[in-house]
C-alpha cells in the first residue's frame, strides 16, 4: 500500500477560544505528531498565528508545508474553516505556493548585531517625534544619500498586500521574485514613491544622526531599537511552502487585491 504524502501531520492552534474549540474537534479525528516530526502542519487561527508558526519552523530548522484554517480576522494566508470536509482530502488537492523570507541584520548604536527573518516585511521607523534620516544603498551603491521620512519598508510578494499596501506600495505577484522598497510618509524627497527590486539585491539603510534621530527596525514581530545600520536580503535557503484550496491560492488573492477599491 502506498503511504500518503503527508502521513504525519502536526496540529497547531492559536490560543483563542474559537481556534481551541476547532482544534479539539479535529484532534479527535486522527493521530497528530509534534511539529518537529511532521510532514506538514495544519494551522488554526489567523495570519498572525500562521506567521508565528512559520517563524517557529525556521527556528527549529524543520520547514514543512503549512495549511491554514482561518478562525482569525483577515486570514489572507489561510483557508476557509470547513469542519465537514476532511483535512486529508483538502491537503491532497491543495495548491502549493513557495514564499522566500527576508534576512534582516541590524547593528545598533552600541555595536550590537542582531539578525532575524521576516516573512512579510522589514520596517525601519522613527522612534521619536524627530523625522528619521536614512541613507539608502542597493548592492553596494548609494541610491539615496538622504531620505527624510517616518520610515521605510522592504516587503516580500507575500507581504506586499499588508503594511506595504497601506503605505501605498505596489502589490507584487508571488512569482515575480521581486521586493518592494516603500517609503512611509516621505518628507524629502517628497514625491519618491519607492522602488521594485530583484530579490537577489541587498538593501542597506544607514541611520543619519542616529542619536538625535533614533530609529528602530521591525522584522515581522521582532523589534530592535536604536539601530545605526540595517541590511536586508531575501533568504531563499529557508523557502517556505503555504498550501491553499484550489481556486483560493495566495496568488489568486494577490491578483484580486489589485482590482479592489
From TrEMBL:
It is an enzyme of class 2 (transferase). Its EC number is 2.7.1.23. Pfam families: NAD_kinase_C. The active site is at 47 (proton acceptor). NAD(+) binds at residues 47-48, 120-121, 150, 158, 161-166. InterPro entries: ATP-NAD_kinase_N (IPR017438), ATP-NAD_kinase_PpnK-typ_C (IPR017437), NAD/diacylglycerol_kinase_sf (IPR016064), NADK (IPR002504). Its main location: cytoplasm. Gene3D superfamilies: Probable inorganic polyphosphate/atp-NAD kinase, domain 1, Probable inorganic polyphosphate/atp-NAD kinase, domain 2. Its cofactor is a divalent metal cation. Keywords: ATP-binding, Cytoplasm, Kinase, NAD, NADP, Nucleotide-binding, Transferase. GO terms for molecular function: ATP binding; metal ion binding; NAD binding; NAD+ kinase activity. The keyword NADP applies. Signal peptide: none annotated. It is found in: Cytoplasm. One of its GO terms (cellular component) is cytoplasm. It catalyses: NAD(+) + ATP = ADP + NADP(+) + H(+). GO terms for biological process: NAD+ metabolic process; NADP+ biosynthetic process. Belongs to the NAD kinase family. Involved in the regulation of the intracellular balance of NAD and NADP, and is a key enzyme in the biosynthesis of NADP. Catalyzes specifically the phosphorylation on 2'-hydroxyl of the adenosine moiety of NAD to yield NADP. NCBIfam families: PRK04761.1 (NF003406). HAMAP family: NAD_kinase. This is NAD kinase. It comes from Novosphingobium aromaticivorans (strain ATCC 700278 / DSM 12444 / CCUG 56034 / CIP 105152 / NBRC 16084 / F199).
Amino acid at each position: 500500500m502506498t503511504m500518503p504524502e503527508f502521513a504525519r501531520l502536526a496540529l497547531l492552534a492559536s490560543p483563542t477560544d474559537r481556534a481551541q474549540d476547532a482544534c479539539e474537534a479535529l484532534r479527535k479525528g486522527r493521530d497528530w505528531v509534534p511539529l518537529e516530526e511532521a510532514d506538514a502542519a495544519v494551522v488554526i487561527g489567523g495570519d498572525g498565528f500562521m506567521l508565528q508558526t512559520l517563524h517557529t519552523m525556521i527556528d527549529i530548522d524543520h520547514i514543512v508545508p503549512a495549511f491554514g484554517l482561518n478562525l482569525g480576522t483577515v486570514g489572507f494566508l489561510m483557508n476557509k474553516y470547513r469542519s465537514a470536509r476532511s483535512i486529508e482530502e483538502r491537503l491532497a488537492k491543495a495548491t502549493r505556493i513557495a514564499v522566500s523570507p527576508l534576512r534582516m541584520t541590524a547593528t545598533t548604536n552600541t555595536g550590537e548585531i542582531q539578525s532575524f527573518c521576516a516573512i512579510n516585511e522589514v520596517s525601519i521607523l522613527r522612534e521619536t517625534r524627530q523625522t528619521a534620516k536614512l541613507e539608502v544603498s542597493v548592492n553596494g551603491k548609494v541610491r539615496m544619500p538622504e531620505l527624510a521620512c517616518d520610515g521605510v519598508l522592504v516587503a516580500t510578494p507575500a507581504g506586499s498586500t499588508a503594511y506595504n499596501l497601506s503605505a501605498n506600495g505596489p502589490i507584487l505577484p508571488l512569482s515575480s521574485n521581486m521586493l518592494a522598497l516603500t517609503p512611509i510618509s516621505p518628507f524629502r524627497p517628497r514625491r519618491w514613491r519607492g522602488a521594485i527590486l530583484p530579490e537577489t539585491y541587498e538593501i542597506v539603510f544607514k541611520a543619519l544622526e542616529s542619536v538625535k534621530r533614533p530609529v528602530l527596525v521591525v522584522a515581522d514581530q521582532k523589534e530592535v531599537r536604536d539601530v545605526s545600520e540595517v541590511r536586508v536580503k531575501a533568504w531563499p535557503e529557508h523557502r517556505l511552502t503555504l498550501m491553499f484550496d484550489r481556486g483560493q491560492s495566495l496568488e489568486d488573492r494577490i491578483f484580486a487585491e489589485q482590482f479592489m477599491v
